[in-house]
Design brief:
Radius of gyration: 19 Å
Structural class: mainly alpha
Helix content: 55-70%
Number of helices: 4
Distance between the termini: 63 Å
Number of domains: 1
């Protein structure tokens, strides 16, 4: 079975690998290297979202992207609750994207 390596993994995955009788080689990333890996993880999960076949599979990939976003915020010194509060405040001030408004520019006068 082919396993993709050289990527950021969730915190419990090393223990899951060990429980499977394997001996993983793990590097702990911090600082800028962690942020870069989290950004790459967001791209990876976004691509998986695009390739997902069912709404449920798409939601799973969205949850993975959200986890990466929360971790980036954590590295920036912000708790996920505070990030969500920022999101809610912006939604209150400017709305969401639910109505599907697509701005094409202004009409010529």
């Amino acid at each position: 079975m082919h396993r993709r390596t050289n990527k950021l993994i969730r915190d419990k995955i090393p223990d899951i690998i060990r429980a499977d009788g394997r001996d993983p080689v793990i590097t702990v990333l911090t600082g800028d290297r962690l942020i870069e890996a989290l950004q790459a993880k967001m791209i990876e999960e976004y691509n998986e979202y695009l390739e997902a076949d069912t709404p449920h599979e798409k939601l799973i990939e969205l949850a993975d992207m959200l986890e990466a976003i929360f971790c980036i915020a954590h590295e920036m010194g912000t708790h996920e609750h505070d990030l969500l509060q920022m999101c809610f405040k912006k939604r209150e001030q400017h709305g969401a994207f639910l109505k599907g408004y697509y701005y094409e520019g202004d009409k010529e006068k």
